[in-house]
């Protein structure tokens, strides 16, 4: 499995069977599930921790989902430096789903 971290906190991984696992907060996870029927809930020890989707999923949407996972796991000051203040990444909201905006 290939895993990606930010400051030691995992936010995305790719399994051997070609699925991307994303660590997302509950609200964004629910929105991603509603917007992407090809995906499913990622559960660890009975607790929902994120979203899983095939790697072959729409590239634009997958990119936005990975970005959402990164923002959810990065330190606030690190995430603030990655996006100019006041900029709304509508692609991320569109890809994750309507309730995550």
Quantity of strands, as a count: 5
Distance between the termini: 30 Å
Kindly state the percentage of residues in helix: 25-40%
Shape: globular
Q: What is the helix/strand order?
A: EEEHEEHHH
Set down the secondary structure blueprint.
Layout lengths: L1 E5 L2 E6 L4 E5 L2 H10 L4 E5 L2 E8 L4 H15 L2 H7 L7 H7 L5
Antiparallel strand pairs: 1-2, 2-3, 3-5, 4-5
Describe the structure.
The protein is α+β, with helices and mostly antiparallel strands and 101 residues long. It has one domain (2-81, 90-95). 39% of the residues lie in helices and 29% in strands. The protein has 4 helices and 5 strands. It has helices spanning 26-35, 59-73, 76-82, 90-96, and strands spanning 2-6, 9-14, 19-23, 40-44, 47-54. The chain has a 5-stranded antiparallel beta sheet with strand order 1-2-3-5-4, with helices on one face. A hairpin with a 4-residue loop joins β2 and β3. The longest helix has 15 residues, at 59-73. The chain is globular. The protein starts with a strand and ends in a 5-residue tail after the last helix.
């Amino acid at each position: 499995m290939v895993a990606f971290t930010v400051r030691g906190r995992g936010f995305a991984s790719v399994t051997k069977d070609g699925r991307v696992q994303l660590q997302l907060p509950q609200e964004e996870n629910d929105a991603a599930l509603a917007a992407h029927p090809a995906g499913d809930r990622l559960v660890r020890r009975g607790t929902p921790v994120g979203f899983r989707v095939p790697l072959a999923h729409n590239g634009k949407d997958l990119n936005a989902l990975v970005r959402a996972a990164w923002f959810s796991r990065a330190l606030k000051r690190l995430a603030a430096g990655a996006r100019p203040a006041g900029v709304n990444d509508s692609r991320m909201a569109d890809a994750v789903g309507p309730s995550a905006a």
